[in-house]
């Protein structure tokens, strides 16, 4: 079982391995919905996201979305509509001067036992192979404990945001041994913090 993958911008074949900023989708880029985002009309980009994506575009980070979309496995969302939603988000970001280099989506249900559904690290590991990413210098911004666990399993650094499910999920961090995870208000704050030098991104 593999994740669905859309590589928008393949890596430069002669460049060194680069760090990535992995982004969860629902609750980080767009509003989370308890009954899943099932149409493009239901995509509501969160405040400050487009500006943050514009800042990121000028950084050395590969920008990679990694999203669990079990609505596909549950028969509630077709792969075609999921692709259209993801492409719509990529387009909105591009039109605002931002960049998304790739989108990975796990279409499986929790019961399927795949290796790509977060908290497992399959999507991050596949992205690292396909996009020449150095996981140790990479970050994952998410709104759920499972995102933080996927980051830890892949060997990259987690940041929780309080948007989406994040406010409630932040309360559960300590319970899962994740008390060290930094928490930021939203994607804009997380991106500013990371770009301000939370990570030595140019270190070899
Ligand atoms: Mg989320
Ligand atoms: Zn999966």
Describe this structure as you would to a colleague.
The chain has 204 residues and is an alpha/beta fold. It has one domain (4-9, 18-196): HAD superfamily/HAD-like (Rossmann fold, 3-Layer(aba) Sandwich), CATH 3.40.50.1000. 33% of the residues lie in helices and 15% in strands. The longest helix is centred in the middle third of the chain and has 17 residues, at 79-95.
Q: What's the helix and strand layout?
A:
Elements: E1 4-7, E2 20-23, H1 49-57, E3 62-68, H2 70-73, H3 79-95, E4 102-106, H4 122-131, E5 139-142, H5 145-154, E6 157-161, H6 166-170, E7 183-184, H7 187-198
Parallel strand pairs: 2-3, 2-5, 3-4, 5-6, 6-7
Antiparallel strand pairs: 1-4
Helix pairs in contact: 1-7
């Amino acid at each position: 079982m593999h994740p669905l993958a859309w590589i928008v911008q393949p890596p430069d074949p002669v460049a060194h391995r680069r760090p990535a900023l992995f982004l969860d989708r629902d609750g980080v880029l767009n509003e989370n919905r308890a009954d899943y985002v099932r149409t493009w009309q239901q995509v509501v980009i969160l405040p400050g996201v487009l500006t943050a994506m514009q800042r990121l575009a000028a950084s050395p980070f590969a920008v990679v979305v990694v999203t669990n979309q079990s609505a596909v496995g549950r028969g509630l969302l077709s792969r075609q509509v999921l692709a259209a939603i993801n492409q719509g988000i990529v387009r909105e970001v591009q039109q605002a001067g931002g960049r998304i280099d790739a989108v990975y989506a796990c279409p499986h249900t929790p019961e399927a036992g795949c290796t790509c559904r977060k908290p497992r690290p399959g999507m991050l590991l596949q992205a690292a192979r396909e996009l020449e990413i150095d996981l140790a210098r990479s970050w994952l911004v998410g709104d759920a404990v499972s995102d933080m666990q996927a980051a830890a399993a892949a060997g990259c650094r987690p940041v929780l945001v309080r948007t989406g499910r994040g406010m409630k999920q932040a309360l559960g961090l300590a319970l899962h041994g994740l008390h060290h995870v930094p928490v930021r208000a939203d994607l804009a704050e997380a991106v500013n913090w990371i770009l301000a030098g939370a990570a030595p991104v140019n270190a070899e």
